[in-house]
Amino acid sequence: MVKHQPLQYYEPQLCLSCLTGIYGCRWKRYQRSHDDTTKWERLWFLILTSSFFLTLVWFYFWWEVHNDYNEINWFLYNRMGYWSDWSIPILVTTAAGFTYITVLLILALCHIAVGQQMNLHWLHKIGLMTTLITTVVTMSSIAQLWDDEWEMVFISLQATAPFLHIGALAAVTALSWLIAGQFARMEKATSQMLMITAYLAVVVALYLVPLTISSPCIMEKKALGPKPAIIGHRGAPMLAPENTLMSFQKAVEQKIYGVQADVVLSYDGVPFLMHDKTLRRTTNVEEVFPGRAYEHSSMFNWTDLEMLNAGEWFLRNDPFWTAGSLSRSDYLEAANQSVCKLADMLEVIKDNTSLILNFQDLPPDHPYYTSYINITLKTILASGIQQQVMWLPDTERQLVRQIAPAFQQTSGLKLDAERLREKGIVKLNLRYTKVTNEDPPDEYRLIWITSDLISFVVIVGVFIFQKWRLGSIRTYNPEQIMLSAAVRRSSRDVKIMKEKLIFSGMDQGWSVKALCFILQLSLC
């Protein structure tokens, strides 16, 4: 009985199969190759790397603007005409795209680490380009329609830059293992110089980044300015429906410095609070007055406004994701809120709370189009909080100074000091992206220097170790040379490798038959 014994045994390489299979659908051993990656695949790797950094910035943007998700929804509401929480699908889609690109990049780096030829599958190429194009289009749209939020990203770096710097430094230091390995494998001095120059440029730039960081998070406590005063925008809109009596009551309970309210005059001359031009978003006007849902809110009599519910939308839409945290009593109270009179709100806040007032322009055919300022001023003065009112509208400032000289004239425009004095402006009401602070960092120097030194020592050590490991142990696998014959490689490189293999075989005492076979291959 003849017993057959396999000529060669291949150990299973499950991890390597998964690596090359997921990235390029190369699940079989014969599909893999240790040859150099083609220029076309290197281009795809460059596109993948660029997409990673682009989606990283995009994901960071949406993560940091979480405090303004309601503004996004309100902006889209004005554009589309109906209310929906767009922040969740946008954030989920962005996170999914970033995760997908990150996984592909990690797989590509693993290919480099184990010396496998990269070959991105065509389905991944379609997914990569779809993600890249979608990100570019949405970033361009946001830059045009909502450019103020991009300034917020730079402001957020005042808090996150010190920590992002440490993370980036750790990532670049970890990449030194791959860079050093590629550096040691390269045979051309020009390629080595280009790689090491590019890598060192990135490392040095990261080492010097802290010189540009200005963050109150790393300042001494004594160097910090006074704690900013908190003003409730439309009351406390996270705890109750905006511009309702409950919202301002919650704001007062939080002991804030002041509140801001939007004032409109009803058709019969009653000042009430409403931000939007219509009642659709914050009331049930479509149910009570379906034929008047798109009318300006000032065209309703107060008796009609009293019939509307101004709280159910808050529980249904949950604009700040806080409705679920309300107590049972607060939940029921919010559900029964109605449109709030200016006089009722003033009664709640008049003791110790300041007030910023903003007004909507009335339609020209409104009966109080020319006198709404006078009516509003009378209502405010009757409440007794004259000294605490910050007057924001630019219209009729001279009239306001005559009737209520104690009002604090406030502007929403960032003008130079001379023009502000000419207008009699004593306060500014600016978006947080328009406020600057030039205080330099006082600490963080020790952490910065220590991190740079540790990174430098690790990088140098990795380069030395990789050079020793890969430079002193050069082996040539006959299977690799034979299987790579069909791969695009210069004949000179193949000839050199085969000659080295022959001499290596002679030193190791290979049989004459094996050497002749290899010599025959080298002559092909």
From TrEMBL:
One of its GO terms (cellular component) is cytoplasm. PANTHER family: GLYCEROPHOSPHODIESTER PHOSPHODIESTERASE DOMAIN-CONTAINING PROTEIN 5 (PTHR23344:SF6), GLYCEROPHOSPHORYL DIESTER PHOSPHODIESTERASE (PTHR23344). The chain crosses the membrane at residues 43-63, 86-114, 126-146, 152-180, 192-213, 446-465. Belongs to the glycerophosphoryl diester phosphodiesterase family. Residues 228-494 form the GP-PDE domain. The keyword Cytoplasm applies. It is found in: Cytoplasm; Endomembrane system. This is Glycerophosphodiester phosphodiesterase domain containing 5. Keywords: Cytoplasm, Glycoprotein, Hydrolase, Membrane, Transmembrane, Transmembrane helix. It holds the Pfam family GDPD. One of its GO terms (biological process) is positive regulation of neuron differentiation. The keyword Nuclease does not apply. InterPro entries: GP_PDE_dom, PLC-like_Pdiesterase_TIM-brl. One of its GO terms (molecular function) is glycerophosphodiester phosphodiesterase activity.
